[in-house]
Write a structure and sequence with these properties.
With 371 residues, the chain is an alpha+beta fold. The protein folds into 4 domains: 87 residues, DNA polymerase, domain 1; 51 residues, 5' to 3' exonuclease, C-terminal subdomain (DNA polymerase, domain 1, Orthogonal Bundle); 140 residues, Beta Polymerase, domain 2 (2-Layer Sandwich); 60 residues, Beta Polymerase, domain 3, CATH 3.30.210.10. Helices cover 41% and strands 14% of the residues. The protein contains 15 helices and 10 strands. Helix 1 runs antiparallel to helix 2, helix 1 packs across helix 3 and helix 5 packs across helix 6. The radius of gyration is 22 Å and the shape is globular. It starts with 27 loop residues before the first helix and ends in a 13-residue tail after the last helix. The chain binds cytidine-5'-triphosphate and manganese (II) ion (MN) (3 copies).
Length: 371
């Protein structure tokens, strides 16, 4: 009988939370193509196929080497027949015809255009497309279309908020929020999270956690911050969602369920004079300010570590943390808590490291979570 094969060294895990993925992507030609396909399947409501392409892209992003032939990928997880065929096409012809077909597909392009507006999701985009609308001017001229407040702001500030936010702009926004929270309480805790915490140079928004060291005091925090920003004339839009957090509830089984903490989705007016090196602006735009999308979430301080881990992302990293917890540890994880189903108890954490420890995972630094 054949001797059992020794376990391959440095085998790439199927879970993103067991891989270290920096912002350096050696396989962008493949992962960009996979993202086009993933989005195409998302628009066509084929979630399984969408996820398959997102997982494959995530694995390739983690590699410290560039794929030069498909044989080199045979020991990698999450790569199937379809993803391998696309890689082959790209390696042979420098591009994928399947991807190019999707990129030129009218429906796909229109849905992508519509969902690029703040407040417009796939369902609304689909509805507009079905009415025969193909451009922003079609939508804005169509009688009987009621834009909600978020969508109105989305169109109004479209140029600005579809332009990437730089790290210097994110820092300037951080200073504004920091000043506002410290007017309210000296015990404020403010942390930059999301893509910028993962070391990205550009983002589509800036994400912060704000809370206070006094449990319970966080309840009025966001409302007060919004009030101060409004008085300063910096608030272009705000959508506040009060907390619906219930400490007795088990963590959610759903992967992308929204958390229940108080949060707000803002558009802020950012002055050029506050930004080192100036604003990201379109050529010929001479205004001395731009609009920036900002998200704030405000958990009770004893849930800080779970919120920080949950809001740092990336989305694929979060998804796999939860999947790993459930499949490998019989635990339930979300942005609020970690529950051990075997011991029937909640596990407390004051740092992200505590949560990795509870899960029996090696600690992954924020800048290694770009899965
Ligand atoms: N998130 C969340 N609940 C929300 C909104 C966001 O848990 N209601 C999490 C997402 O899972 C994500 C992180 O917060 O991991 C940041 O979300 P987002 O700003 O959309 O993405 P970024 O990774 O910051 O990417 P970008 O730079 O494009 O903003
Ligand atoms: Mn399509
Ligand atoms: Mn973000
Ligand atoms: Mn965000």
């Amino acid at each position: 009988p054949e001797a059992p094969k020794p376990a391959p060294v440095n085998k790439v895990s199927q879970y993103a939370c067991q891989r270290r993925t920096t912002t350096e992507n050696n396989n962008r030609i493949f992962t960009d193509a996979f993202e086009v396909l993933a989005e195409h399947y998302e628009f066509n409501d084929l979630q399984g196929r969408c996820l398959a392409f997102r997982r494959a892209a995530s694995v390739l992003k983690s590699l410290p080497w560039a794929v030069r032939c498909v044989e080199a990928t045979q020991d990698l997880p999450c790569l199937g027949e379809h993803t391998t065929a696309i890689m082959k096409e790209i390696l042979q012809h420098g591009r994928s015809f399947e991807v190019e077909k999707i990129l030129s597909d009218e429906r796909c392009r229109t849905l992508k255009l519509f969902t690029s507006v703040f407040g417009v999701g796939p369902k609304t985009a689909e509805k507009w497309h079905r009415r025969g609308l193909r451009s922003f001017s079609d939508v804005l001229a169509e009688p009987g279309i009621q834009l909600n407040r978020m969508q109105q702001s989305g169109f109004l500030h479209y140029g600005d908020i579809s332009r990437a936010v730089s790290r210097a702009e994110a820092r300037a926004v951080g200073n504004i929020i920091d000043e506002a929270v410290h007017v309210i309480t000296p015990n404020a805790i403010l942390a930059l999270t999301g893509g910028f915490r993962r070391g990205k140079e550009f983002g589509h928004d800036v994400d912060f956690i704000v809370t206070t060291a006094e449990l319970g005091k966080e309840k009025s925090l966001l409302i007060n911050i919004i009030d101060i920003l409004k008085k300063q004339g910096l608030l272009l839009f705000s959508d506040y969602q009060a907390s619906t957090f219930d400490i007795s509830k088990l963590p959610s089984h759903r992967f992308e369920a929204m958390d229940h903490f108080a949060k707000c989705f803002l558009i802020l007016r950012l002055e050029a004079s506050l930004v080192e090196g100036g604003l990201q602006r379109a050529e010929g735009d001479s205004r001395d300010w731009r609009a920036v999308r900002v998200d704030l979430v405000s958990p009770p301080v004893d849930r800080y570590a779970y919120t920080l881990l949950g809001w740092t992302g990336s989305r694929m990293f979060e998804r796999d943390l939860r999947r790993f917890a459930r499949m490998e540890r019989q635990m339930l994880l979300d942005n609020h808590a970690l529950y051990d189903k075997t011991k029937k108890e909640f596990l407390t954490a004051t740092t992200e490291k505590d949560i990795f420890d509870h899960l029996g995972l090696e600690y992954i630094e924020p800048w290694q979570r770009n899965a």
